[in-house]
Design brief:
The chain is α/β, with parallel strands linked by helices. The protein has 8 helices and 8 strands, in the order E-H-E-H-E-H-E-H-E-H-E-H-E-H-E-H. It folds into 2 domains: 101 residues, Rossmann fold; 121 residues, Rossmann fold (3-Layer(aba) Sandwich).
Length: 244
């Protein structure tokens, strides 16, 4: 019997965890390809991968498709999730396990981000500066991916003043990136947190933006990517790909 095991990142934020679970439950309600579907998280938010894997088996799963709810392929996708799955696979060696890819850089996501930006700032000029804020990773492929994201968003929004910074594990860090863009811009500053859900990282971004707004700076910030329903539709599309 087929099962789908969804894997989110996890967060200490109650709001962020609730958003992720609600998102995945909406997905489950729309995916009828597998009779067994379970939600799990890599860290911080239960149920964890081993618990949800066991639940799939107890419900009768003979093959499990692992679907990561991650934007890009970095250390969590290449190392952490496979390692977390390894113990479960050793405990249940008869179970066939396949792991799907994360979102990656896709036009549909960039189109959705453009719409999120336009919902916050209607009049964008070539003088405006955009700061994309990634979660961050030591994996060098992340820098390549964000270079593609920056180029794609710049072309869509109509400015070549697009910078990238990171909240952890990569440079420039968020504080450095925000200060540099604020000093150099001759127009508005538009901050785009490239994150799926609310959480402590997004709160950090929003707090910094609001502090600058109070000081008189013309700066705006979009919400998490899942505020746009295109992300949900794309996630479902990737789940069903090659399954029929």
């Amino acid at each position: 019997m087929k099962a789908i095991l969804y894997v989110g990142h996890g967060t200490r934020s109650k709001k962020g965890a609730e958003e992720a679970k609600a998102f995945l439950q909406r997905v489950i309600n729309q995916v009828d390809d597998a009779p067994i579907q379970e939600i799990s998280f890599l860290e911080l938010t239960p149920p964890f991968i081993d618990q949800a894997f066991k639940r799939c088996v107890e419900r009768g799963a003979t093959e499990i498709t692992v679907v990561p709810l991650f934007l890009l392929a970095a250390g969590h996708i290449k190392k952490d999730i496979p390692e977390a799955l390894l113990k479960s696979q050793e405990n249940y060696p008869a179970i066939q396990v396949e792991m799907k890819d994360p979102f990656g850089v896709q036009d549909e996501i960039l189109d959705a981000v453009e719409e999120l930006v336009l919902s916050v700032v209607e009049d964008i000029s070539p003088e405006d500066s955009v700061l994309i804020v990634g979660r961050g990773s030591s994996d060098p492929s992340i820098h390549k991916a964000f270079a593609e994201i920056a180029d794609g968003l710049g072309r869509r929004i109509g400015t070549d003043k697009v910078s990238v910074c990171y909240l952890a594990a990569a440079s420039p860090n968020f504080e450095e990136g925000l200060e540099t863009v604020s000093q150099r811009t001759t127009g508005k500053v538009i901050v785009i947190p490239y994150l799926l859900f609310s959480g402590l990282l997004l709160s950090e971004v929003i707090q910094n933006v609001r502090a600058r707004q109070r000081s008189g700076e013309t700066i705006y910030c979009t919400g998490p990517l899942t505020e746009h329903r295109a992300i949900e539709k794309l996630f479902i599309k990737q789940i069903l790909k090659d399954e029929k």
